[in-house]
């Protein structure tokens, strides 16, 4: 529908596959359904059943009633690009071992998987539109079917589903990677620490206000992980800043510096090598930075 966007779609995955015969197959979805089926058949080493299921899914009609009119009148296709992560939390998707903490927060498994689509301005790098889908939100009675949920944000408009508030106390809640045990121990002196899987999932916890902050001191997230949630956070008054630069910003200068500290998405380098902090309330960001500065042993890796 929008050919001009073809060269400006970026992401973690590509459309090239290598099948069991070591043949490289380029998968393209076109108006020709039979051509797509044959291509999938080649990728899947002749598995007709799965190729048919995937083809039917690709060409199925999905009706979604918009919650509000989210049109942006001055959005020019020539000035936008798209970051996509089709399966964020791949390891969780593969393992499927669901673990939920005592307060209902998913820590691993299918509930930590998300699909992330973010639109950004190719001139400034500012995230403009974000769509996040969590397809495995709730297992329906019977145990064979999942119910998903989704959220979106554009400009100052947004839709975020209502969820149960976190019941783990009154302290600010900071989300961390499951691999950051030492950092978790240091932050636990002041904050309620939640360690869970999936960058998109952790960002969704902040979006849904089940956590107040997401801190990552490592350079292990990429534009495809953050663009979509960042746009929604931005629509709600929050953002995602570069951890190292935010730490180096004098506290008095932070409010004015926030716009320049935000992640951008138009550079060739897709990795956020300075670490990130995601927030909804700038006051919570300031609180965390103050604590981190007072504990210099906590450094970016």
Write a concise keyword list for the protein shown above.
alpha+beta; 6-stranded mixed sheet; 5-stranded mixed sheet; Inositol_monophosphatase_CS; EC 3.1.3.57
Word description of this protein:
This protein has 301 residues and is α+β, with helices and mostly antiparallel strands. Helix content is 28%, strand content 26%. The longest helix is centred in the last third of the chain and has 13 residues, at 223-235. It is globular. InterPro entries: CysQ/Inositol_MonoPase, Inositol_monoP_metal-BS, Inositol_monophosphatase-like, Inositol_monophosphatase_CS. Keywords: Lithium, Magnesium, Metal-binding.
Element-level helix/strand string:
EEEHHEHEEEEEEEHEHEHEHHEH
In terms of structural class, how would the helical and strand content be classed?
alpha+beta
Query: In what range is the share of β-strand residues?
Result: 25-35%
Q: State the separation between the terminal residues, measured CA to CA.
A: 43 Å
| Poorly predicted regions | none
Helix percentage range: 25-40%
The Cα radius of gyration reads 20 Å
Shape: globular
Q: Tally the helices.
A: 9
- If strands are numbered along the chain, what order do they take across the biggest sheet? 1-4-7-8-9-10
Largest pleated sheet: 6 strands, mixed
Number of DSSP-assigned strands = 15
Protein name: inositol-1,4-bisphosphate 1-phosphatase
Catalytic activity: 1D-myo-inositol 1,4-bisphosphate + H2O = 1D-myo-inositol 4-phosphate + phosphate; 1D-myo-inositol 1,3,4-trisphosphate + H2O = 1D-myo-inositol 3,4-bisphosphate + phosphate
EC number: 3.1.3.57
Keywords: Lithium, Magnesium, Metal-binding
């Amino acid at each position: 529908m929008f050919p001009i966007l073809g060269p400006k779609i970026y992401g973690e995955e590509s459309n090239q596959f290598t099948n069991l015969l070591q043949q490289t197959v380029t998968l393209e979805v076109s108006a020709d359904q039979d051509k797509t089926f044959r291509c999938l058949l080649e990728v899947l080493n002749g598995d007709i059943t799965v190729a048919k299921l995937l083809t039917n899914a690709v060409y199925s009609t999905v009706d979604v009633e918009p919650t509000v009119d989210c049109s942006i009148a001055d959005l020019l296709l020539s000035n936008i690009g798209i970051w996509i992560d089709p399966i964020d939390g791949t390891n969780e998707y593969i393992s499927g071992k669901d673990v939920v903490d005592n307060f209902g927060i998913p820590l691993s498994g299918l509930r930590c998987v998300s699909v992330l689509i973010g639109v950004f301005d190719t001139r400034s790098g500012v995230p403009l539109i974000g769509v996040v889908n969590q397809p495995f939100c709730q297992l329906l009675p019977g145990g064979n079917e999942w119910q998903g949920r989704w959220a979106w944000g554009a400009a100052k408009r947004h839709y975020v589903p209502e969820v149960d508030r976190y019941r783990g106390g009154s302290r600010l809640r900071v989300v961390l990677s499951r691999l950051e045990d030492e950092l978790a121990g240091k932050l636990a002196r002041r904050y309620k620490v939640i360690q869970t899987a999936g960058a998109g999932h952790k960002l969704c916890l902040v979006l849904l206000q089940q956590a107040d902050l997401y801190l990552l001191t490592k350079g292990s997230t990429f534009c495809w992980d953050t663009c979509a949630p960042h746009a929604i956070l931005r629509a709600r008054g929050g953002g995602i800043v570069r951890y190292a630069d935010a730490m180096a910003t004098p506290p008095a200068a932070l409010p004015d510096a926030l716009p320049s500290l935000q992640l951008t998405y138009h550079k060739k380098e897709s990795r956020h090598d300075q670490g990130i902090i995601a927030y909804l309330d700038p006051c919570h960001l300031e609180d965390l930075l103050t604590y981190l500065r007072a504990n210099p042993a906590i450094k970016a890796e």
